[in-house]
Amino acid sequence: MENLSDEQIEEYKDAFSLFDRDDNGIITTRELGAIMRSLGFNPTEEELHAMINSVDYDGNGVIDFPEFVKLMEDQKKPDEREADMMLAFRIFDADNKGYIESAELRYILLNMDKRIPQEEIKELMEIADLERDRKIRYQEFLDLVECEQQKFIRWRKVKHT
């Protein structure tokens, strides 16, 4: 949430309060279902659980405000997400070569605030460099980010069970 403006957070709080009908700080499947039906959708109980589980990082079966913000941010228009990813890639590809040297990306990953273990960096490099030419092109970069997001989601679910 640190990337969001105060205005965006307020908008999300307003939206969250519409879902959180009993004002207890969480959204249940029942509350989510009621809102979805009022919008003309008719989700099954299974679909509602799947929606909640997609962002329920603490595994308690409900959505709290930070999880709601994550859900909303994940629903950004693909164009916005694409623009964010392109900007990140361009930052790493400072020379505008159309790729990131794998050594350069390895260096960046090793020197991040949140330390990534060497073994995981090696695995990421193998996943990212599909052509085995030590150059990470844009699509490979996107695949790498997607892979890391999925690993993080699995890790959070394991950690909280």
Largest sheet: 2 strands, antiparallel
Q: Give the helices and strands as they follow along the chain.
A: HEHHEHHEHHEH
CATH class of the largest domain: Mainly Alpha
Please tell me what the overall shape is.
elongated
Number of strands: 4
CATH superfamily of the largest domain: EF-hand
What percentage of amino acids are in beta strands?
5-15%
Residue stretches low in confidence (pLDDT < 50, at least 5 long) are none
Spatial separation of the terminal alpha carbons: 24 Å
Could you tell me the mean pLDDT? Answer: 80
Gross CATH architecture of the largest domain: Orthogonal Bundle
Q: What is the rounded Rg?
A: 19 Å
Domain EF-hand: 7-42, 43-78, 80-115, 116-151
Organism: Stylophora pistillata (Smooth cauliflower coral)
Protein name: Calmodulin-4
GO molecular function, one term: calcium ion binding
How would you describe what is shown here?
This protein has 161 residues and is mainly α. The chain folds into two domains: 6-76, Orthogonal Bundle (Recoverin, domain 1); 80-159, Recoverin, domain 1. It contains eight helices and four strands; from the N terminus they run αβααβααβααβα. It has helices at residues 6-19, 29-38, 45-53, 65-74, 78-92, 102-110, 118-128, 138-159, and strands at residues 26-27, 63-64, 99-101, 135-137. The strands form two sheets. A two-stranded antiparallel ribbon has the order 1-2. The chain is elongated. The two termini are 24 Å apart. The mean pLDDT is 80.
